[in-house]
Amino acid sequence: MSSRRIRVVRPGDLGAGDIETWRELRAESGAPAQPFMEPEFALAVGRVRPHARVAVIGEGAGGTAGFFPFERGRLGHGRAVGLGVSDVQGAVLRPQLPLGAKELLRACSLSTWEFDNLEERQGLFEPDAARSHASYVIDVGHGYEAYEKALRARSPKFLRTTLAKERKLGREAGEVRFVLDERDPAVLRTLMEWKSAQYRRTGRRDRFAKRWIRGLGEFLFHTRAPGCSGLLSVLYADDRPVAAHFGLRSRTVLSCWFPAYDPSFAKFSPGLVLHLRMARAAADDGVGMLDMGRGAAVYKDALKTGELRVYEGTSARPGAGAALHWLGREPSRRAHDFVRTRPRLAGLAQRGLERAGRLREPKRP
């Protein structure tokens, strides 16, 4: 008979001992110190998502052996905590814990658990992945100078052009300076406005139109913990913000999250200048890796040194709830994959989204 005990609580009901154990188990995992996998991220989501929960897994006399953050919806449909903005997902478990996905879902009263950025080596859920994606990273573990030397050898024209544009920005717009950790909330609001406009321009869903996502970002901006701190980095020209990025950092990993820039400065490529400045400053502050997340982009191809893998899919227990989830999600997911793997169709779809975005833009007087 198993001596395992699983209790489900709201993130805010975790005790200080639970949070410390979570941090210890995460450190013992040997995985990169991703801020999204720390208790502070689940605690922040719990403040803005009322259905956020954490399963606390006890194992015999050995105490707590793991944590599983999730959100529970109708008919027992579950999802990764913060799904839609969480760039790394999964459970935090003692190594070699004999636990099955179906047992965990049953204890959480879940028929399914959906993920779209499942971390590598999440053996509990990885067998249920439908597809994998590259998450692009910048390795600055040997210092920024080593990274720039490699970048110069691999993409000399890109680096030369970006540095030239930074100098031109200084000549034409005023003195350029960079702040790694900006504490002015007004600049965060400016970044959110830029990002919302970018989403609309490109025909994508405006994440910051959702109150919970805006509230999550604002709360994490003020979060300060060793494994998860909000970090707003800003590129200024003549004391005017021209590009900014808001992400989460641990001691050694900066998870890139929301980058954007003022479109009136587009000719200077301020977003690229920002990323190079950010890589340098973060490396000097002890960060060894910047994780730019999944999703192909020209700037990521230019800046990356390597890739991690993240997984998308659904774990399910047999039953009506799982069947309904499959019927609701799988056809559209397969259609998306069909378009994504055919460049001509993907290009047509993107141009259609951009045209729709322009139509939604307010008319200028």
UniProtKB/TrEMBL annotation:
Pfam families attached to this UniProt entry: Acetyltransf_6
InterPro entries: Acyl_CoA_acyltransferase (IPR016181), BioF2-like_GNAT_dom (IPR038740)
Ranges for domain BioF2-like acetyltransferase: 159-300
Domain of life per record: Bacteria
Protein name in UniProt: GNAT family N-acetyltransferase
Species, as recorded: Streptomyces atroolivaceus
Record lineage: Bacteria, Bacillati, Actinomycetota, Actinomycetes, Kitasatosporales
